[in-house]
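Can't attach files on this board, so I'm pasting raw text. These are the components:
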Amino acid sequence: MNNYSHATTLSPSAPTITVRSELILRFVSLVFGLGLAVLLIQQYRIENRTFFYVAALAGAGFAVHALLPLSYRLLFFVSLSFAGFALAFTIPDAAWLLGIGLSLIALCHLPVRFWVRVALIILVGIALSFARAQAIPTPVGGAVWPLLGSIFMFRLALYLHAIKHREVDPNFARTLAYFFMLPNVTFALFPVIDYATFRRNYYDEDAWSIYETGLRWIVRGLVQLLLYRLIYLNFSLQATEVHRLGDLVQYVVTTFLLYLRVSGQFHLVVGLLHLFGFRLPETHHLYYLSASFTDFWRRINIYWKDFMMKLVYYPSFFGLRRFGNRRAIVLATATVFVVTWLLHSYQWFWLRGGFPITVPDTLFWGILGVSMVLASLSESERGRRRVGGKARWSLQLGLKTVGMFCVLAVLWSLWSTESVIEWIWMWRTAGVASARELATFAALLVVGVAITGWPWGAKTLRADVRVPFYRNPTLRSLATLLMLLALSVPTIQQALPTSARRLLASLQDPGLNSADAALRVRGYYEQLDQRGALNGQALWQEVAQKPSNWVELSTENLLEVHPDFLITTLKPSYRFVWNGHPTSTNRWGMRDREYALEKPAGTFRIAILGPSLTMGNGVDDSEVYDNVLEDRLAREPLARNMRFEVLNFGVNGYALPQQVALLEDRVLRFRPDVVILTESPYFRDGIGRFLQRALWEGHPIPYPDLQELLSKKGLYPLDSTGIPIPFAFLRGMAGAIGVDSRMSWGESRSRIQSVSLDVGRWATRRMAAEIRASGAVPVLLAISPADPLPRDPDALLRVGAESDVLAFDLIHLYDGQDLSAIRVAPWDNHPNAIGHRQIADGIYAQLRQHAAELHLPRTPVPSL
Amino acid sequence: MQQDVMGTVKGFILDKFLPGEDPQLLTPTTELIRSGILDSLATLELVGFLEERFGIQLEAHELGGKLSSLAEIERLVTAKLPPA
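---
Top answer:
Structure tokens for the assembled complex are below.
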């Protein structure tokens, strides 16, 4: 039975003026705090715009809800939640969501036997999963599936469990509140909320304490999301960026810390629910301070742990205990981890549409599961001291906590890395360390032990004691909000040192970090559905917006496959409309206007080579920057009586080595006066991707010096037959016993990454020499896609300087601009027509500035 | 009998999971699961004790909310005991 005696209101029936004035003060503090939280969400652009609307709706809704008589509150919460859904979705999508959802709830209450209901729901679930996988066509919008999955994939099981054990409340409003909770509007990744707890804990304590806890957890969630952003944008690395011990430690630790995003979101969800009387338990409890595997399991994602206990662990234990408690504990724990591993993929299927069962994923859950079984056995034998005793610093606790953090961070890094081999390869760098790095690492461990030796957040049975006013939780929440808001004010930021200013600016940036930007540059994001790690969240969120009818280039026949080093070129005289943009090639296989092979007299010819950005993915033929530049040069020629032609040899995905091959194959035949080699600061990724394909597909490498460069790294020739075995010495041992082995894909990727800069140098040097030999001027155009810059944005320019080519530096062309206004689409970082116009203007300015070096006749030129 | 159930269970919990704690702080409404006193292993240990001590059989679905406080445990055990 629920006890609602604590659901106080501000009604005149309050016993004394003192009590009423205290309640008014608490009410005003809460409303003020929620107002600040909403402002903070806006100032720091936390999550997305929908979250801001939901937070504003929840804040305003709270102010009304808290003043309503208790009997109206549940209905009000349901109405508010529906208003949120209506706000965030189109009417058809909201109708589908509601229709399918209500049908599923209705199935739970059919007047037939329980197992028949379960069977019906499973059948409907299978049908829905086919629809979700687009195996059967439905008119349901793409935005509906993740939310439908989020709401029903686990909560339906808990609801059925409650029905079976007669824990369901006949109040239909509660059922609607349970399934269609307001925070679900914006958070698809959602804690698994237990129905029985949801029902039992509704206003089961003093209402104002529940609300204040809600505000506290909302603030905690916001702080965690800001910390996540700080780490994500400033400190996290890709595995391929790990070159020494310092990088390795940074990679391992920051990968683990990125989980802050999940715990931040869960705190927000549960905090918001507290504002409406749902006194749910904490979702995460200082999980970075776990001192053992079992401790970690109890602290991280507590709702999932409870879900597993209820539906898997206890039933398994009861079913197995006839074999003895010890065996039952082992088997029940193992079952929990197998089920968790499978349900993790099941969850990803509903949220993203793909199954991320990968080797790192399997290893992660397997190792965690085995460790948990061993830790459970040990704990069941030794027992665990839980509460009691005086809290004091303990060296043993500090060592255990720091040790466990390291173990978990290493495991987490395995889970987050693309392949196990890449992960193992990364650990080779642990031996590359300076004395300073070692000292820093040791100092961090010592500080860690000193801090974690205190039993932070240890729960106690002691009743609440009066705390001084400055430790009042609401006051601390308000102070935190005010401080963070103050830090978002430009005038305050200006008073801070540059480094602090830069970090603060990153807190207000909801964009991608350079690692995810690199993934997007190399088109990797299309595989995100297959990945399980949570760290791709930010990237996935953008990619998830991509409509299902968006046409990828791979589905068109524009690209022709070559068996040689070019691998692909553009099909000549090809026309199609690409996502609404007329796209065509001329008779020479260039995305450009028609040109004669012979250069007409009085013509200054500029040839541009480059990847998709130069080819003009995502814009009309006439909007590609070479055409915009050519038109401008016709209107405002840089030399009198001179005609300018700008020839676009750009090909989707072209890396620098392919530009070498294309230059020799056809570009120089057009007798250009200037040859512009185009690349982005992500050029090493492009080289890596190209070489990986060229080597594994066995494309011949016609350049002896490049062959030598690759063979030094054991990459040429690359044997693609045999069993993949990591490391040369292991392959040598395998060969000694007659096993035919080869390098694995992951190892070759890591090896290629280590040589990519040298390959970039080789390509640029070779092209520069050939262009000069032809009488033309080589130029390196460094340009960035509409994305954040990588850690070392100037590496490409340094490569150019070493080859003594003229550099056109447009890397910072988009600095200070809203990148979303320059991108083709949120999921496509190619510049749109505005971005291309800026590139054309940038090149025009550079041509004018370097007219003499480009051998342009000295003539007056119009002003810019 | 009710006092016996409450007292017996309280004694077991204090002895097993809260050594050194002031018995007065463990009240009938103290949240055993939420406060971390009862985790999964401790719950199983308590189940074993209740079944053996009171001669009752518990079921898996009773291990959540019905063990959430001494008062809830007393209610559960009393309901399963044969009438006096």
